[in-house]
Design goal:
Length: 465
């Protein structure tokens, strides 16, 4: 038998059983005479039976809903939707049952009101109840599509809101968990960064600062140093419970645009031609190159930056030839004026070069080569020529491969400190005393970093000039 016929057949059989009982009672002389003589009792009995029938119907519906809930195929979304329904029954079921009860009980009462002995007032009440219930039910049904659409839209929005809140809570929990997991490494990194910057700041402020012009270093530099030392000491004492924000704040003061290192970089920048990113890129490139040079090349590089007195040890034998000296003669205005006409003399340039590389070269020039206005002019011309020779050797030390490697390593620095992939090193030109002092301070700082094996490129990458 098809399953959809089972329930109606069961109801029919129950009804037939009731009729059979009444028929058997009538045959036995137990007819419903007393009930008919008391219509109110009959009505009460009928209402009771109707109530039992509807209770059985509700029980059957609830059993179907529980079966649905126990079904493994039921999704969590469907279960959540059932929780929002009255008695977990399909929408409109309870409203329809109430309307049916009123109709099944009320209509017979209204139709047989005279047989039941109901007065007009009671009949009017029953009529009002039936009209109100039916009017509400069919009126609600007439607006159901719009109401359902609005409710479904509201449910969808509410569901989206719940999903969004759940996602936000999940993301917040994930971020918090990630923060807790990375806290030790972040603390270690922050402490290492502050320690590096603090070491450089101490060199500039405490060791080189007294010799620098006033105003080159920020007035708050000493305060920043004290605060950084306190934050670093507290972090070491607290270990994993250290205050990360205090470490970052102390580091930001030292690495900001007005920090000690950034201030010296800004002061020295006008002495170098600007790179693609600006003058700071040229300074950063020179510092990175100086740290990576060999010992002999570093001595020449430092002598050029410091404009140090001539040292014969800066030039290896044979590295300066008459041909290179002739090329550099144009960079020494005094020598170019006096000696360019004599370059055609055999052996003249070799003799001049031999004289200039001796320790008493100024006296020899004044004695052997006429044309100088005074011994001072001879010494000045000699200094110009030697500086030109030193620049040639320094430029030869700065190989293109080394320049490209340092420029690439500075790509992680602030934009103002990036020299660019096609940058070319430029040696500083003469400038005011403040700029010269700043450049000399950087050269001395670079020497200290070389001795402590501290690469300046990561220090520069941490700046925010």
């Amino acid at each position: 038998m098809p399953s959809f016929l089972a329930i109606p057949l069961r109801i029919l059989l129950i009804g037939l059983s009731g009729v059979s009982i009444l028929f058997c009672a009538r045959l036995a002389g137990l007819g419903p005479g007393p009930l008919l003589e008391a219509p109110g009792t009959l009505v009460a009995l009928l209402i009771f039976l109707v109530g039992l029938g509807f209770a059985a119907f509700l029980w059957w519906l609830a059993a179907r809903c529980f079966t649905l809930l126990r079904d493994p195929a039921t999704t969590p979304e469907q279960m959540a939707a059932l929780r929002d329904l009255p008695l977990a029954l399909p929408e409109g079921t309870v409203r329809a049952l109430l309307a049916l009860i009123v109709g099944i009980v009320g209509l017979p009462l209204l139709l047989f009101s005279q047989s039941l002995g109901l007065n007009d007032a009671i009949a009017g009440y029953v009529n009002g109840i039936i009209a109100g219930v039916f009017g509400f039910y069919f009126g609600a049904r007439s607006t159901t599509p719009e109401a359902q659409a609005a409710r479904r839209l509201g449910d969808a929005l509410e569901g989206q809101q719940r999903v969004s809140e759940a996602l936000q809570a999940s993301e917040a929990a994930a971020r918090e968990a990630a923060t807790r997991a990375t806290q030790p490494s972040r603390l270690a990194e922050a402490m290492a960064t502050l320690e590096r910057q603090l070491g450089v700041a101490r060199l500039l402020v405490q060791r080189l600062g007294p010799a620098l012009p006033a105003g080159l270093l920020p007035a708050e530099a000493e305060t920043w140093l004290d605060r950084a030392e306190q934050a670093l000491g507290a972090a070491r004492a607290l270990g994993g419970q250290a205050d990360l924000a205090a470490l970052q704040s102390a580091t930001a003061a030292l690495t900001g645009r007005d920090g000690p290192l950034a201030s010296v970089l800004h002061a020295a920048a006008p002495l170098l031609p600007a790179t693609a990113a600006g003058p700071l890129g040229g300074v950063a490139l020179l510092l990175g190159l100086g740290w990576n040079l060999g010992s002999a090349a570093w001595r020449r590089f430092r002598a050029r930056l410091l404009d140090a007195p001539y040292d014969p040890a800066l030039f290896e034998p044979g590295t300066v030839t008459p041909a290179s000296a002739e090329l550099r003669l144009a960079d020494a205005p005094i020598f170019a004026r006096l000696f360019t006409p004599r370059l055609i003399e055999p052996g003249f340039l070799a003799g001049l070069l031999d004289t200039c590389l001796r320790e008493d070269a100024a006296d020899r020039l004044w004695a052997r080569y006429p044309g100088f206005a005074s011994p001072e002019e001879a010494a000045l011309g000699l200094a110009e020529f030697r500086r030109a020779l030193l620049e040639e050797r320094v430029e030869a030390d700065l190989a293109p491969e080394l320049v490209a490697r340092i420029a690439q390593s500075l790509e992680g620095a602030a934009p103002a400190l990036r020299p660019g992939p096609t940058a070319r090193p430029s040696l500083p030109v003469p400038g005011d005393e403040t700029a010269q002092a700043a450049l000399q301070a950087l050269a001395l700082l670079l020497g200290e970093l070389r001795e402590s094996h501290t690469d300046p490129v990561p220090l520069l990458a941490e700046l925010a000039p």
